[in-house]
Design goal:
The chain is built from nine helices and eight strands. It is an alpha+beta fold. The longest helix is centred in the first third of the chain and has 27 residues. This is NIPSNAP domain-containing protein.
Length: about 260
C-alpha cells in the first residue's frame, strides 16, 4: 500500500510540474512595449526630431535587435499646439528597456539635434510609457492593410480608470469579457492591447487599431456600436463606469516606420 501511494505521488508530480511550467512559460511569453512621445511646439522641432529618428534612433534600435518599430504622427499635428511623434517599440522582455537609453546615448550623428542649445531644443519634452500586453492578446500584430501610407489610419486609444478597481474591471472586460473578440470578429486590425505599467496617467490601458482609410474606420466603429455582443457586455452591471477618461489619437505612420 505504501509503495502504491509513492507511485501515485510520483505520477502527480510528473503531471503537475509540466503544467505549472507551461503556465509560467505562458506568462513569460507576454510581450512588453515602450511608447516614446516626443512633444514639440513647432514644425521645425518636428523636422529636426525626425532627422534624429531616421538617422540615429531607428538604426540603433535595429542594431540592438529591436524590430517592427512603429513611428506615427497625429493627423491633427499641423494645427495642434502640442505636435507629437509616437514611437512604438515592442520587446519580448521588459529588461530590454532598462538600459535602452544608455545604450543608444552617444550614437547621435545629427549635430543640430545632439548639440542643440538649451534655449532652442529639438523638442519640448519626451514622455515614456511602459506597457504589458494583455494575456488574451500577448503579442503585437503587424496589420494587414492595403491603403497607401497617407490613407492608412492608426488609432491609439487610452482608457483611464477612476480607481484601480474600476480599471481592473475594464481590463477584465477586454479579456474575460471578450471585448477583444469583438474587435477581432469585426476586423479592426488591432496592433496591440496593453496595460500601462508606468506612465504619467494611471491607472490606464492603451490599445491600437488600424484601418485602410478614415471612411473604413468610421464604418468599423459604426458596426461596433451596433454589435449585439457589445451591447450585451457593455450593459452588464460589473462593467459600468470603468472608463473615467478616454483619449483617441488618430495617426498616420511615417514613411520610415517599420509598421
Amino acid at each position: 500500500m505504501k509503495l502504491y501511494k509513492q507511485i501515485v505521488l510520483l505520477l502527480l508530480v510528473a503531471t503537475t510540474v509540466p503544467t505549472l511550467h507551461a503556465v509560467a512559460q505562458h506568462k513569460k511569453n507576454v510581450e512588453f512595449y515602450q511608447i516614446k512621445v516626443y512633444h514639440c511646439r513647432s514644425n521645425e522641432q518636428i523636422d529636426l526630431t525626425e532627422q534624429f529618428l531616421k538617422a540615429d534612433l531607428l538604426p540603433a534600435l535595429h542594431q540592438l535587435k529591436f524590430s517592427k518599430i512603429g513611428v506615427f504622427k497625429p493627423i491633427e499635428n499641423d494645427t495642434a499646439a502640442d505636435k507629437r511623434i509616437y514611437i512604438f517599440i515592442p520587446s519580448s522582455s521588459i529588461e530590454n528597456f532598462i538600459s535602452l537609453d544608455e545604450k543608444i546615448a552617444g550614437q547621435t550623428h545629427v549635430a543640430a539635434y545632439a548639440d542643440a542649445a538649451h534655449n532652442n531644443p529639438p523638442y519640448q519634452r519626451i514622455e515614456t510609457i511602459i506597457l504589458k500586453a494583455f494575456k488574451d492578446h500577448p503579442h503585437f500584430i503587424v496589420p494587414s492593410l492595403t491603403g497607401t501610407t497617407g490613407e492608412k489610419v492608426y488609432e491609439l486609444r487610452s482608457y483611464e480608470g477612476a480607481t484601480e478597481k474600476f480599471y481592473r474591471k475594464k481590463v477584465h472586460m477586454f479579456n474575460e469579457g471578450n471585448e477583444i473578440g469583438i474587435f477581432t470578429r469585426l476586423n479592426f486590425n488591432a496592433v496591440f492591447y496593453a496595460e500601462v505599467l508606468a506612465g504619467s496617467r494611471m491607472p490606464n490601458l492603451m490599445y491600437m487599431t488600424s484601418f485602410n482609410s478614415m471612411k473604413e474606420r468610421e464604418e468599423h466603429w459604426k458596426a461596433f456600436g451596433s454589435d449585439a455582443e457589445w451591447k450585451r457586455i457593455s450593459s452588464l452591471p460589473e462593467y459600468q463606469n470603468t472608463v473615467s477618461k478616454a483619449d483617441i489619437i488618430l495617426m498616420h505612420a511615417t514613411a520610415y516606420s517599420d509598421l
